[in-house]
Amino acid sequence: MSKRLQVLIPDEELVEIRGLADRERLTVAAWVRRALDEAKRRQSNGDPGRKVAAIRAAAEHSFPAGEISSMLVEIDRGIAAGPSLPPPAPAGRQRRRSP
Predict the structure, then answer these.
(1) What angle do CA 9, 13, 17 make, to 5 degrees?
(2) Spatial distance between the Cα atoms of 28 and 18, rounded to a whole number of angstroms
(3) How far apart are CA 51 and CA 59, in angstroms?
(4) pLDDT at residue 31, rounded to an integer
(5) H/E element holding 20?
(6) How far is residue 89's CA from residue 1's CA, in Å, rounded to a whole number?
(7) Domain locations in the chain?
């Protein structure tokens, strides 16, 4: 079931939002719903205790790592090279091979 949400905003802000929505060929309502969805995704929704426990568990492991300067160079080199492999197929589906 859907519910109506009424929000009062100054006229100038509504003009700005209408302009943003128009540029993306959206209604104001669709633009606002999308903005709210993006804001929800940015919020932390996990249990802080669980996150701290996961960090503590990860900190117990010891893995080899290079110097930060050399790792950053390798990262930059990889970014500059672009993707080298096609993205994996979704689980349960197989990619069709070209003839």
Answers:
(1) 110
(2) 6
(3) 12
(4) 96
(5) helix 11-23
(6) 35
(7) 7-59
Q: How many residues are there in the chain? A: 99
Structure tokens at 79: 């970014």
Each residue's pLDDT tens digit, 29-87: 999 999 999 998 888 777 888 889 988 998 888 877 888 999 899 989 888 888 776 76
Tokens encoding 26: 């959206």
Q: What is the pTM of this model?
A: 0.47
* Rounded distance between C-alpha atoms, residue 6 and residue 12, angstroms: 17
In degrees, to the nearest 5, what angle opens at C-alpha 54 toward C-alphas 51 and 88?
95
Please state, in angstroms and rounded to a whole number, the distance separating the CA atoms of residues 31 and 25. 9
Q: Under 8 Å CB-to-CB from 89, ≥6 apart: which residues?
A: 95
